[in-house]
UniProtKB/TrEMBL annotation:
<feature type="signal peptide">
    <location>
        <begin position="1"/>
        <end position="31"/>
    </location>
</feature>
<comment type="similarity">
    <text>Belongs to the cytochrome b5 family. MAPR subfamily.</text>
</comment>
<feature type="region of interest" description="Disordered">
    <location>
        <begin position="148"/>
        <end position="169"/>
    </location>
</feature>
<dbReference type="Pfam" id="PF00173">
    <property type="entry name" value="Cyt-b5"/>
</dbReference>
<protein>
    <submittedName>
        <fullName>Neudesin</fullName>
    </submittedName>
</protein>
<keyword id="KW-0256">Endoplasmic reticulum</keyword>
<dbReference type="InterPro" id="IPR050577">
    <property type="entry name" value="MAPR/NEUFC/NENF-like"/>
</dbReference>
<keyword id="KW-0732">Signal</keyword>
<feature type="compositionally biased region" description="Basic and acidic residues">
    <location>
        <begin position="155"/>
        <end position="169"/>
    </location>
</feature>
<dbReference type="InterPro" id="IPR036400">
    <property type="entry name" value="Cyt_B5-like_heme/steroid_sf"/>
</dbReference>
<keyword id="KW-0479">Metal-binding</keyword>
<feature type="domain" description="Cytochrome b5 heme-binding">
    <location>
        <begin position="44"/>
        <end position="141"/>
    </location>
</feature>
<keyword id="KW-0349">Heme</keyword>
<dbReference type="InterPro" id="IPR001199">
    <property type="entry name" value="Cyt_B5-like_heme/steroid-bd"/>
</dbReference>
<keyword id="KW-0408">Iron</keyword>
């Protein structure tokens, strides 16, 4: 059972997320126009994300890059069963995207040891391909929580597209 410190940190993170969701997006004091909103985002464990690997015809196809889960179903010809990039689906394939690799050893969230060029490529593909083309449906639990269940203090709510804590509960 979690002690008071981890619970408090989780409560603090929830408060930060809730407050950040209501902040105006401009410095003029005017609230920005609300962005187009899809379905509420959610957290995915590795096991949950694995269910969306493109094997079932009636299921959406999801993949994660940098802990952000994208619905790539509209690119079924690239990500569906038997398609060239199907190996990237149903998991966080950040390293594979950075290295432009489909090697099973690279199909992981781990970015340890990537070169500056690979990290730059990752950011470029993340922004110009995935964020530009595919709806965000959630985040990997690893992005928000550390392995011990404590909050990931590097998680920045302001960097999360259409993340709204009240949609999560």
């Amino acid at each position: 059972m979690a002690g008071p410190a981890p619970r408090r940190r989780l409560a603090e993170l929830a408060l930060v997320l809730a407050l950040a969701a209501g902040l105006p997006a401009t410095g003029t004091g005017q609230a920005a126009r609300p962005a187009e909103r899809g379905p509420p985002v959610r957290l995915f464990t590795e096991e949950e994300l694995a269910r969306y690997g493109g094997e079932e015809e009636d299921q959406p196809i999801y993949m994660a890059v940098k802990g952000v889960v994208f619905d790539v179903t509209s690119g079924k010809e690239f990500y569906g069963r038997g398609a060239p990039y199907n190996a990237l689906t149903g998991k966080d394939s950040t390293r594979g995207v950075a290295k432009m690799s489909l090697d099973p050893a690279d199909l992981t969230h781990d970015t340890t040891g990537l070169t500056a060029e690979e990290l730059e490529s990752l950011d470029d593909v993340f922004t110009r391909v995935y964020k530009a083309k595919y709806p965000i449906v959630g985040y990997t639990a690893r992005r928000i929580l550390n392995e011990d269940g404590s909050p990931n203090l590097d998680f920045k709510p302001e960097d999360q597209p259409h993340f709204d804590i009240k949609d999560e509960f």
